[in-house]
Design goal:
This protein has about 350 residues and is of the alpha/beta class. The protein is about 35% helix and about 20% strand. It contains twelve helices and twelve strands. The strands form two sheets. A ten-stranded mixed beta sheet has the order 1-2-3-4-7-8-9-10-11-12. Helix 5 crosses helix 6.
Length: about 350
């Protein structure tokens, strides 16, 4: 269900913009309709009040939790079922964050990612994106939403931008705490810069070498690492938020001294932070995760050379919870062993 469809349904019942905002705010903030100074009986038109039970049921039916997979780091990966039988992954992050999916599958085909192995199956609607946040808020507080789950947000731009607009207004989430993650797309930079809600930006860099980037991200837009950094810098200066550059650390692939020199050349002096994430191992793929000691040494060396670097760990390591793995297990339980799963 698109957010615009929900609004049209309300307007057909006689709802005005203030009524739409109230109902959507109640939904996305997980609060009852009778909360607040304006009670529904005094504020909402009678046709809207009468339709609320059916509308609430429709909103609730968009997404449901199939299984929950808690990890020792305080995160929990949710396998979320959609109304048509498809499934996506949503991650409850430590420190009141949630990571949402924007597509079922992905067309970019990153060589080290499970999600893209089956290609793109369909887009996730704006309503289904927000519904993932609602499911998370029903379980714990949510003050930050990152679009880093299954899919490439720039390939589902209309739905993602609509969801961000609602989350940044009626959802009561700070704009800098809405993080749009992308492999890089000029259209996305333009749309975000023009929006009322301007999210923070995370760019998948992964290498400073153009040829290697094309190999690792075979169907990403043909932007070189330098062009990607330039686009990110312009957006960071516009919003005042530092751009986050994502670097999945792959042993023997992008962890050499030449790459570290390239990072310093590209990012030193930029309004940016480098998030270095050791690879989350996926069975059947040849990539390997470097030792934590090596990753820590690389991050420290970059920091000393003037690049703000944060070493991060992908949530859910102890439950084999890399992005796309839960959905793959649900589709074909024999492909990946299941560990520490609660249903």
């Amino acid at each position: 269900m698109q957010l615009d469809v929900i609004r049209q349904r309300l307007r057909a019942l006689g709802a005005q913009p203030l009524h739409e905002q109230r109902i959507l705010r109640d939904w996305v903030q997980c609060q009852p309709h009778d909360q607040g100074r304006r009670r529904p009986d005094d504020f909402l038109p009678k046709p809207v009040r009468e339709a609320l039970p059916a509308l609430d049921a429709a909103l609730q039916a968009m997404a449901r939790v199939i299984s929950t997979h808690p990890a020792d780091d305080g995160s929990a990966r949710l396998l979320v079922g959609l109304a048509d039988g498809q499934a996506v992954e949503t991650v409850l992050l430590p420190r009141d964050g949630v990571c949402v999916s924007s597509q079922v599958g992905c067309a970019v085909g990153c060589q080290f990612c499970m999600t893209g192995r089956d290609g793109l199956l369909r887009q996730v609607t704006s309503g289904e994106i927000v519904a993932q946040v609602v499911l998370a808020r029903a379980r714990r507080p949510v003050k930050k939403v990152v679009f880093m789950g299954m899919g490439e947000p720039a390939h589902n731009l209309d739905n993602v931008i609509d969801a961000i607009a609602l989350l940044g207004t009626e959802g009561n989430i700070g704009h800098k705490n809405l993080v749009f993650s992308t492999v890089g797309d000029v259209r996305a930079f333009e749309r975000m810069a023009a929006g009322v809600v301007k999210p923070a930006l995370a760019l998948s860099l992964h290498t400073t070498k153009p040829a290697l980037r094309e190999q690792l991200l075979p169907r990403a837009p043909k932007l070189t690492p330098r062009e990607l950094v330039d686009h990110g810098e312009r957006y960071a200066r516009l919003t005042g938020y530092p751009v986050q550059f994502q670097w999945t650390l792959l042993e023997g692939v992008n962890d050499g001294a030449d790459e570290m020199d390239g990072i310093v050349e590209l990012l030193k002096g930029k309004h940016a932070v480098l998030n270095m994430i050791p690879y989350n191992t996926i069975p059947d793929l040849a990539f390997k995760r470097p030792s934590w000691e090596k990753a820590r040494a690389i991050a420290a060396a970059l920091h000393q050379r003037g690049v703000l670097t944060k070493l991060r760990d992908s949530a859910g390591q102890d439950v084999d919870g890399g992005c796309g793995q839960l959905r793959a297990r649900a589709a074909n339980p024999r492909t990946i062993p299941i560990r520490s799963i609660e249903v």
